[in-house]
Amino acid sequence: MQTSDSYLTNDKVGFSSFANTYGYSVCPRIHLRKPSDIELAVERFKGTPVWVKYSHAFGGDLLMKVDAPVTSEKLHGAVQRMYRAVRQATKVNDYGGVTMETLWPHDSISPACGGITIDQDARYLDGSLIAGKVICTGSNLMTLNSDGTAQVRGYF
After folding, report:
1. Mean of pLDDT values over 5-20
2. Which of 4-8, 47-51, 62-66 has the lowest mean pLDDT?
3. Residue 14: how many CA atoms within 13 Å on its side-chain side?
4. Residue 13: which residues within 8 A CB-CB, separation 6 or more?
């Protein structure tokens, strides 16, 4: 079976940019591009849990929940765990010759290939510490055919 290119279909930073461009609402988020963005996230989300997401990851060590109260130490810790996971992956896998320094330069707060988002947990959008009901989440719908072809039907 031929799989889709996750770099195109799982770009969290790109998705939020396109959502803003086309008028779709998304959870409040911050794109981590510079160290001061950590403090911005602490101020904005300190009372509610957040999700720290590597732009093109599906989960595991590259998707982390940070419980409230959100602090700079917790966010830096999540980013450092991601950095170590990516560094370990580059040692174990080939990545087509892409080095860790190219993928995530040692002096950068986030990876060069898209970045990191810090998203408010959707269950706490009203700002309270009482979890609310999530009405829906984003999902893609596609048809996979026996000949290996696929058609993306939509993103909802």
Report:
1. 74
2. 4-8
3. 11
4. 31, 55, 114, 115, 117
CB 32 within 8 A of CB 110: yes
Pairing between β-strand 63-66 and β-strand 50-54 as defined by DSSP bridges: antiparallel
- Residue 51 has a CB neighbour count (10 Å cut-off) of 18
CA–CA dist 88, 95 (Å, integer) = 12
CA distance 119 to 65: 10
**What's the rounded mean pLDDT across residues 48-60?**
84
**Residue length of the chain:** 156
DSSP 64-104: EEEPSSP-HHHHHHHHHHHHHHHHHHHHHS-GGG--HHHHS
Sign of CA dihedral 150, 152, 153, 156: positive
Residue 60 three-state SS: helix
